Amino acid sequence: EDMYKKTHKTFVNVKELDRVMCGKYRPGHFKGVCTVVLKLINISVPDIAYFGLKDYQQFLIIKTMIKDLNLEVAVKGCPIIRDKDGLALSSRNKYLSLKERQNATVLYKALNLAAGRVKEGKSSIKDIKKEAISLINSNPFVKKIDYFDLRDSESLKSVKTLKEKTPAGRNKLLIASALWFGSTRLIDNILI
């Protein structure tokens, strides 16, 4: 009630970045995230705000909001923390059954497979995605794939080809995915 009075009418929205990846499947989610983060920043007036890179899209959206609104807070991305088998640590992992948890490593394996193909010099995004998605679909515990994308790390625009020459200092390539194991949605990514 203190944060959202019944008369609350103002929300913050970072356009374009909120319409792809998770935003496509969770309309309005990032509008809520930006609004609450802005309110918390205004209340606490921090010098630095730390956000995990597991939800890279959220990190980029918040970083963009802070820059666009001229807020005097530095945004730092914190590395993804992984279990020994590679699964990104998440509060959602507790909702996985034992078998789902054992099989959830397929998400990280598929991301690594795609990253490996890029590093090997494969140029067909279509073929890289097809191979990674095939690996995911071979796992019987995956119920649904929301997305498996290769995107520019600053614009979140889809990368169409890896053949084109890029200028020095090019943004990193984001390989990101969201999968469902039963009723649990997991996200993960790799930056290369």
Task: Explain this structure.
The longest helix is centred in the first third of the chain and has 16 residues, at 29-44. The protein has helices at 22-25, 29-44, 56-68, 98-103, 106-119, 125-137, and strands spanning 48-52, 74-78, 142-152, 173-181, 184-191. The protein is α+β, with helices and mostly antiparallel strands. The strands form two sheets. Strands 3-4-5 form a three-stranded antiparallel sheet, with helices on one face. A two-stranded parallel ribbon has the order 1-2. It contains six helices and five strands, in the order H-H-E-H-E-H-H-H-E-E-E.
Number of helices: 6
| Beginning-to-end CA distance, first to last residue | 43 Å
Which residue ranges are poorly predicted, with pLDDT under 50 across at least 5 consecutive positions?
none
**Largest sheet composition:** 3 strands, antiparallel
Can you give me a brief rundown of this structure?
The chain is an alpha+beta fold.
What attributes does this structure have?
192 residues, alpha+beta, 3-stranded antiparallel sheet, two-stranded parallel ribbon, 6 helices, 5 strands, globular
Write the layout of secondary structure elements.
Elements: H1 22-25, H2 29-44, E1 48-52, H3 56-68, E2 74-78, H4 98-103, H5 106-119, H6 125-137, E3 142-152, E4 173-181, E5 184-191
Parallel strand pairs: 1-2
Antiparallel strand pairs: 3-4, 4-5
